[in-house]
C-alpha cells in the first residue's frame, strides 16, 4: 500500500521519499529489488549518511530501505535522531511516506505518528479482527494522533488475503482463527480411530499421508506466494507419493489439474505457465524410470475394466466386510448407478443396511462422526456466511473427492476402505477446519460491522 501511494504521488509530479520503517518484517527492498546493506537503521546509528543511503527507483521517487535489522527497533525509532531525520527529509521532498508495522501488534506506528503530519490506516475486508480494530481505535484516540483516513485494501484473485502477526505476514486468517483451524483438525484426527490404528500398523500408509499433505501444502504456497524455488520439493514429494501408492500420486495430479483449470482465477498466461511446470516433470520423471510418459505403461493395465473387475472380485470383495457391490460396465447408465453406489460406500460407508459383520460395526463410530461433519458443512455452505473467500483450501476437498473416486473403482470392502480413505478423509478434515475457521472469522466481522456502522 505504501509503495503504491508513493508511486501515485510521484506520477503526479511530487518529489517523494518512501521510508521502510517496518523493522519487524521489512518488504520494500523485495518490492523494488534493491540492495539493503545500508538503510534507515544505519542512518539512525550514524553508520551512513542520509543523502547517500536513499535509492532512486523512479522519477521523483526515492526509497530508504530498512537497513540492518536492530535488536531494539522501538528504541531506535522512538529517538530524537529519527525525528530530526524526518525533518531533514521534509526539506528535500514534497511527501515523506513511512511504512510501519501493524498498529495492533507494535507501538512503532504510534511513535512515528507523533513525528509525522498524520496516519493513514490500511485494513483488509474479511480479515480485520473486531477486537483488534477496537483496540487500535482506542490507542489512536488516547494518543490524539491525526488520522488522515482509512484505506480498504482489496485483494486480487492472485494474491489472497494477508494478515500481519508477530512472526510475519500470514495468509487468509487472523492468528486466533488459524489456531482454531489447527486445533479443530487435531481434534478430528484424535477422534479418527482408523488413522490411529493404521499409523501404528502400516508405515507405508503413514508416509503416504505425510508426503501427500506436504505436497498439497507446497503447491498452495507456490501458487499464493510465487515461491518457484519450492517446485523441486513439490516434484520430489509428488513422486514419493506416486511410488508409495501410484493411484494416490495420479489422484493428486488430477486434483491439481482440476484446480488450475477450473478454479484458479489468474491471467491465462500465468495459468498456462504453471500448468506446464506441473505437467512436464510429471510426464518425464516416470519416463526415465521406464514407466512411460506420465507413467502410463505402469498405470494403463490397472485401468482395464477386466483388471479392475478382477481386483474387485479377488482382492477387495473377500472377507466378512464386503458389501457385494459390482460395477456394471455394460452401458453408461448402469455404470453411473453402480459406480455411484460404490462411491457413496467408499466415502460414507458402512451405511445402516450394510451392517453385516463385526468389522462394519467397529467402523460405525467414526462413520457417524463423518456424517455429522458432512451435515454441519452442508448447513454452512447453504448459509453463505463467508465473504471474500479464497479458494486454496478447495484443493483439499478436490483431493478428497478424486482419491475416493479412484479407489471406489476397485474396492467395495469396508475393511479395506478404512485404510484406502485415510488420505482423502484427512484432507477433508483439514478442509472442514479451515472452512469453519473462516466462517467463525466472518461471523465475528459481521457482528463488528453491525456494531460499528
Structural features, described:
The structure is a single chain. The protein starts with a helix and ends with a helix. With 453 residues, it is an alpha/beta fold. The strands form 3 sheets. It has a 4-stranded mixed β-sheet with strand order 2-3-1-4, with helices on both faces. Strands 5-6 form a two-stranded parallel sheet. The protein has helices at 2-11, 28-32, 40-44, 50-53, 73-77, 80-92, 108-115, 130-143, 175-190, 193-201, 203-225, 231-244, 246-263, 268-288, 296-303, 305-314, 332-348, 358-383, 394-407, 414-420, 422-451, and strands spanning 16-20, 55-58, 61-64, 95-99, 119-123, 147-152, 162-165, 168-171. Helix 19 (394-407) packs antiparallel against helix 21 (422-451). The chain is built from 21 helices and 8 strands.
What would a concise description of this structure say?
With 453 residues, this protein is α/β, with parallel strands linked by helices. The protein contains 21 helices and eight strands. Strands 2-3-1-4 form a four-stranded mixed β-sheet, sandwiched between helices. Strands 5-6 form a two-stranded parallel ribbon. A two-stranded antiparallel ribbon has the order 7-8.
